[in-house]
Design a protein that fits this description.
The protein is an alpha/beta fold. Helix content is 49%, strand content 16%. Strand 8 and strand 9 form a beta hairpin.
């Protein structure tokens, strides 16, 4: 299946964006109908995080989440196989001068799990010195390698760090001066995590960003990628002042509050298909 899927991506990567997005919308509605376990996860997340919405509004948001997810999957055909010239027009960047000015010292790009996270990381790698990205090991070795190759195809000297490697490799490369495109907002279990609120729900959140910044002296620059009608826009924000502090819990709360504010601006583009609240505080009932 992976071989066939990758072949299809190669075949469709030259299609106009409007056709890819139309296909993604159809695929998203199909997944919404067929992927029952993931639909239940999305529903649980939306109910917990948006209790102020009525049932019909929550249902629309769940469906829109599936559509954005599927559209981002088809967009990977362009991101993994399109030319650098096409990617520059497909993914626009706001605030590149901030990244250029920060280059050369330890730097962490805070890139939450929005539908555009793939587009943002690959676009920022074009024509830049080596960077460090992260990925989750996939069960299928063929797709796993395609993921690594796709994210690093403009950076032969870049470094791809798997979540399974932990912080050891990231720490070494940050000290070496490689900017880190970091995605720290998933539930990875209780290890190295603390419970801090996310939409008012206690969320197991790794403290790695605070710890890495503390050890290496890295600056943290938020990087948010928004899906638009015709592509994506990457927005780079000024590096946070007074970060990190001596309080990793306060730092991690600041991160979650920033991400929550960004999610409220484009709720359907967040990765609600992930079990963000899988790890629960002692005595708390399961959410899924």
């Amino acid at each position: 299946m992976s071989r066939l899927a990758l072949l299809m991506m190669r075949l469709i990567h030259r299609l106009p964006v409007r056709l890819l997005r139309a296909g993604g919308a159809a695929l998203g509605l199909l997944l919404y109908a067929l992927a029952v376990p993931r639909r239940r996860v999305a529903w649980a997340n939306i109910r917990a995080c948006f209790p102020e919405l009525d049932h019909a509004q929550q249902a629309r948001l769940v469906r829109a989440t599936f559509i954005c997810f599927a559209q981002s999957v088809l967009d990977r055909a362009v991101l993994w196989y399109g030319s650098a010239e096409r990617l520059r027009s497909f993914v626009h960047v706001e605030g590149m001068e901030l990244l250029d000015a920060a280059w050369g010292g330890p730097l962490i790009l805070l890139a939450p799990h929005f539908a555009g996270m793939e587009a943002g990381g690959i676009r920022l790698s074009i024509g830049k010195p080596p960077m460090m990205t992260m990925y989750s090991n996939q069960k299928d070795p063929l797709f796993n390698q395609a993921l690594i190759d796709g994210r690093g195809r403009f950076q032969p000297d870049g470094v791809a760090v798997s979540r399974q490697d932990g912080a050891r490799v990231a720490l070494r490369e940050l000290k070496r001066g490689l900017p880190f495109y970091f995605l720290p907002d998933m539930d990875l279990g209780a290890r190295d995590a603390i419970f801090v609120p996310f939409f008012g729900v206690p969320a197991a959140t790794v403290t790695a960003m605070s710890r890495l910044a503390q050890i290496t002296g890295a600056r943290v620059m938020p990087c948010i990628t928004r899906m638009s009608e015709n592509g994506y826009t990457v927005t780079l924000y000024p590096a946070w002042e007074n970060f990190p502090t001596a309080d990793a819990a306060a730092d991690t709360l600041r991160m979650n509050q920033f991400i929550e504010a960004q999610v409220r601006g484009m709720p359907a583009q967040y990765h609600w298909l992930h079990k963000r609240f899988k790890t629960r505080p002692p005595g708390a009932a399961p959410l899924y």
